[in-house]
Amino acid sequence: MMLRAVMGLLAILALGSAVHAGDRSDSEPSCDGNTYQMVECLKAKTAEWDTRLNTAYQKAVQDAQPAQREQLRTAQRLWIQYRNANCLYYGMGEGTIARLDAGECMRSMTEARAKELEGLGRQ
Fold first, then answer.
1. Radius of gyration, alpha carbons of the chain
2. pTM given for the model
3. Which among 51, 46, 109, 58 has a CA at the least distance from the CA of 81?
4. What is the per-residue pLDDT across 2-33, written as a single tens digit (0 to 9) for each?
């Protein structure tokens, strides 16, 4: 039981490092607080990245060659299914850490895809 508590604490500390890492400015608020506050913070950050992702996706579709457009649409639909299934896996874990893991999964995968789509025109 003690080992499980220590492992849980280590997981929370690791998540805290992951939440604070990345390319953000120092003025961006961190996701500290109780579990509810951390989950809500991750949701807000995910929503910001989702907006950026949608803008980049629309531009990528517009800029794509006609033969590429349908493939990009198919790839995006499949990517959304994969992200949702992948993050659901984390959300099905034990304890409140599962909610944080799932939230960080959604945020980080959405950020990565937004950046990928933003880079399509620069390749």
1. 17
2. 0.73
3. 109
4. 334 333 433 443 444 444 444 444 455 688 88
Contacts of 103 (CB under 8 A, 6+ apart): 38, 39, 42, 43, 46
CA neighbor of 42 nearest in space, from 65, 14, 67, 19: 19
Question: Dmax of the chain from CA atoms?
Answer: 59
Angle ∠(107,80,21) on CA atoms, nearest 5: 20
SS (H, E, C) the chain: CHHHHHHHHHHHHHHHHHHHCCCCCCCCCCCCCCHHHHHHHHHHHHHHHHHHHHHHHHHHHHHCCHHHHHHHHHHHHHHHHHHHHHHHHHHCCCCCHHHHHHHHHHHHHHHHHHHHHHCHHHC
Length of the chain: 123
